[in-house]
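Thread title: Can someone regenerate the structure for this chain?

I was given the following input by a collaborator and told the matching structure tokens would be attached. They weren't. Posting the sequence so someone can regenerate them.
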Amino acid sequence: VQCGSPNAIGMSRAYFQLHTVYVPNSPAWDFLRYRPRIIVINLGTNDAGYHVSDATFESTYITFLQNVHAKLPHAHIIVLRTFRGTKAAPTLAAVNAAKAAGDNNVTYIDTTGWITSADLNSGPHPSDAGHVKIANRLGPILAPIMGLTWKPL
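Best answer:
Regenerated them for you:
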């Protein structure tokens, strides 16, 4: 999906590259080098500003989730509702499609109310205090998956 890069490469493609979206000919990431147990995804906020339709967003997200699990089949994918709710419906639909296709290692987390506009510092971007609030909500969700005990920040 889009992210405002000058070359129209969104995170659905850039995730698999070594460099950011600003390097269009980036080599592929070596997924054998690092194998995360959990991947947290929060995409969609920028797509609304670039007029990506819900249908395109959802189909791209479905493919993205499939591609991530093709590279990292044992990772648990946590998909967050964007904090301002942008593209929430197609995000949830993509997760439900992945589950319907048999992917039991993908979870949607509804982040409604996790932060407020006071926790943002520039448009949709959380401030430091906003990030602490997010961490204190996400930590208890991730800790059991990792076999850890969560201690609030």
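Helices lie at 11-14, 45-49, 54-71, 88-100, 128-146.
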